[in-house]
Amino acid sequence: MQNVVLWDKCLSKLEDEMEERDFHTWVRPLRANNADSSLVLYAPNRFIKDWLTDNLDQQLKTTVQHFAGEGASVVISLDSPATVQTEASIQNIVLQNTSNEEPSQQSSPFGTNVLNAAFTFENHIEGKSNQIARAATKQVSENPGAAYNPLFIYGGVGLGKTHLMHAAGNLIRQNRENAHVAYVHSERFVSDMVKSIETNSMNKFKNYYRSLDALLIDDIQFFADKDKSQEEFFHTFNTLLETGSQIILTSDKFPKEINNLQERLISRFESGLTVRIDPPELETRVAILKNKARKNKVDLNDEVAFLVAKKIRSNVRELEGALHRLVASSRFSNREIDLDLAKDTLQDLTLFQERKISIENIQKTVADFFNIRVADLKSKRRNRQIARPRQIAMALAKELTSMSLPDIGDAFGGRDHTTVIHACKKIDELTRTDSKIKEDYATLQKILSV
Amino acid sequence: MSEASNQLALALTGNDKASFENYWAEGSAELVKVIKASAEIKEPVSVDKPRVIYFYGNSGVGKSHLIFAALRHAKERNAKTSYLSLSDAYVSPDMLAVVDVHHLVCIDDVDAWAGSKEKERALFTMFEQVKHAGGQLLISATRPPDAAEFVIPDLVSRLSSGLIYPLHELDDEQRFEALKMRAKARGLSISDDSVRYLMSRSSRDTGELFELLDKIDHASLVEQRRVTIPFLQNLLNRD
């Protein structure tokens, strides 16, 4: 019996006999091959090989002998890296040919420090929340090493820091074709360094990173606690600055707020320009959604875009997720993307968020923010220091929960629903005329939406 | 009956492995279609398409069933897959690091790793690798990404960028239909009254009910008896 056919039979029998979880984890990834009188099973990694040897050796042998006779034997071996590598390389080639990503790649001894050509300034949506960061990044890209060095961009997750970084790299490369630009995630920098130490090629690592025209490192906060990497990065950083190369860094926090980062690195990070990206405001979220929809050749009208952008507030990746869900729902249910479909879909996505933003949560957050007690919000007191926060809390409850107006009134000491309507109108008016109220309200929205 | 005669060849009872056909899809038909489509993809996924299908629900709603159905569906089409259950004690961050990220990677119980920075970093790194390789992730969890108590926000935002679906508990009527469908798939003849009897006297967890159905099927085969209410009464009293 040919070994591959034999293994197919064994697979079916093992699938019936084993727990599905064990079968798919440990047996399914095996590759079978010919050997004189035995079936050689190649495990893709040592974890699978070790587990099979410890736990399934006998069962494998029994199964093979069931089909091939008692003389048959089984050998479990580790698949050669060359085989795995070749398969991966073939798929990489396919990827580069079929993907829309069009990575603009330069040779690197450390994997692929790829710039994503899809991220440019042209398709970056500008809004109040990111305009300073965008302007600074563009300026730096037009005059690398001269304007602000390093440029440190920080802000919450999914707000477009990586987009700006790639856009900068692409523009630098566009202006100087042979510019040596590397984009690397900080985790990758660390793992490259560890590999270099293991393979005694630290000099190669240093030479590569220290000879760049621009080094773009994403999510620098992952350097925290990694002293050796920080040490190496410090020296790389200094060399690049001395030679006039541009450095752009991103992080989720302001440099000083990154825990367990060496003081000297923090002070280097702050020596250039530090800019912040805030969560996008409603209009920008709508523009981002419409832009992404256009890219995906999806027809998204303003009504739907506004509905999604109002519900999904925290970051761009979640907006992207909501758009993907809308497209999938439309495709698989043969429905147009209209308000009804959007409402149904968003119900799934905001199910947990709405449960999380409870009226109690809003009351406590507002009370803490204005330094009053929750009991004050529910009390009959009508002085401005209490009444204004109460109105804000009511408006937030209307906006962020699906509670009815009478229920909201009830939660504030049994008030009538007309009081809630009045509160919402008042806050709507004040957020347009009073900048302090506008700022407070926006801050509370952000706190509650995180 | 002796203990020895209680034993049957396992192959006889293992004929209802997870598939899309034996999954009660009412209420989650769209998710099933999305997962099915993902298991049929052989080419790298383009950058604009979602990388992650993330579905969540309580124990017993059929999360693992859907993952195994996807793996089976992919296997039948010769598509390559990887599978890891993060609640499996053998699975470590090192193991995640060597997963082949070029095709469909199925991760069961992802939130079993929530709260551990080291493990979450391994997940984050894998996500990035899958993204660059054009692979796709099929992930199950008990809660949505933003409620799963992950400590690395970057991981949460990446998991949130894909298709997220809740899986709801079946109500009694749906559970009744699902049990009947499951019994039929096993070739087990069981009357509506017997199914109702079973539901009123055992766990309301669908997964546990299915396990009980396996036991009943096995006992009925071993004892060569039809599944009747007295038979079930006797069997349940034994436990």
* Main β-sheet, spatial strand arrangement of chain A: 5-6-7-4-8
Strand content range of chain B: 5-15%
Number of strands of chain A: 8
Q: How would you describe the shape of chain B? A: elongated
Tell me the span between the first and last alpha carbons of chain A: 61 Å
Determine the most extensive contact between two protein chains.
Answer: A-B, 57 and 60 residues
CATH architectural designation of the largest domain in chain B: 3-Layer(aba) Sandwich
CATH class term of the largest domain in chain B: Alpha Beta
Q: CATH superfamily of the largest domain in chain B, called what?
A: P-loop containing nucleotide triphosphate hydrolases
What level of helicity do the residues of chain A show? 55-70%
- Tell me the radius of gyration of chain A: 29 Å
- Report the portion of residues of chain A in β strands: 5-15%
Q: Which sheet architecture does the biggest sheet of chain B show?
A: 5 strands, parallel
Q: Which parts of chain B are unreliable, with pLDDT below 50 for 5 consecutive residues or more?
A: 1-15
Q: Report the strand count of chain B.
A: 5
Q: Which architecture name of the largest domain in chain A does CATH use?
A: 3-Layer(aba) Sandwich
Largest sheet of chain A: 5 strands, parallel
> Within the CATH hierarchy, at the fold level, what is the topology of the largest domain in chain A?
Rossmann fold
Structural class, judged by helices and strands of chain A? alpha/beta
Helix fraction of chain B by DSSP (H/I, runs of at least 4): 40-55%
Our count of domains of chain B comes out at 2
